[in-house]
Amino acid sequence: MDRDISDYIYSKLASFSGSRRVIFELLESDGIENYSSVYAFIEKVKEYGCQIAIDDFGSGYSNFIHLLRLKVGMIKIDGSLIRDLDSDENAQMMVKTIVEFSNKLDILTIAEFVHSDSINKIVKELGVHYSQGYFIGHPKKELVQIC
Asked: What is the pLDDT of residues 64-110, one digit of tens each?
């Protein structure tokens, strides 16, 4: 919404050869009052090859309208649904539904909080495209400079 910040981001992306590796994440819980401004930003960064993801999907009042209006390319399924997949049938059913819905819209899915081999196996069985969490790897203190 801030024009100066948007212009700064656009200028950095214009001078960065790796912009196809940049993913902007929108929190699922964020209220979006001005879709036209957010949509304009999304369309502009997509011109640079960037991707858009909805983060923490399923953690609050999941708003499927975000998926339709913002034309995101990824959904990061919240860790609160993933962490107990090996013991919670309802969570499995919800994740399966999110994956099936996302597949119909050609949206990639990412499971957050994949912390064990059993969770990793279930995530794969449910058809989630990508995973992140301690089972995959611990965070590293690396910075990537885009200027």
From this structure: 777 777 888 999 999 999 999 999 999 999 999 999 999 999 999 99
Q: Is 51 helix (H, G, I), strand (E, B) or coil?
A: strand
Task: Identify whether the C-beta of residue 23 lies closer than 8 Å to the C-beta of residue 74.
Answer: yes
Q: Tokens in use for 54?
A: 């909805």
Q: pTM (2 decimals)?
A: 0.79
Q: Are 58 and 112 in contact (CB under 8 A)?
A: no
Instruction: Please report the beta strands in the chain, taking only residues with DSSP state E, as ranges in sequence order.
Output: 23-27, 51-57, 74-77, 108-111, 130-131
- Asked whether 107 and 79 are in contact (CB, 8 A), the reply is no
Residue ranges of domains in the chain, CATH in brackets: 3-131 (3.20.20.450)
Which residues, including other chains, have CB under 8 Å from residue 98's CB and lie 6 or more apart? 57, 58, 75, 77, 81, 109
Structure tokens at 32: 């979006």
CA-CA-CA-CA torsion sign (5, 13, 18, 20): positive
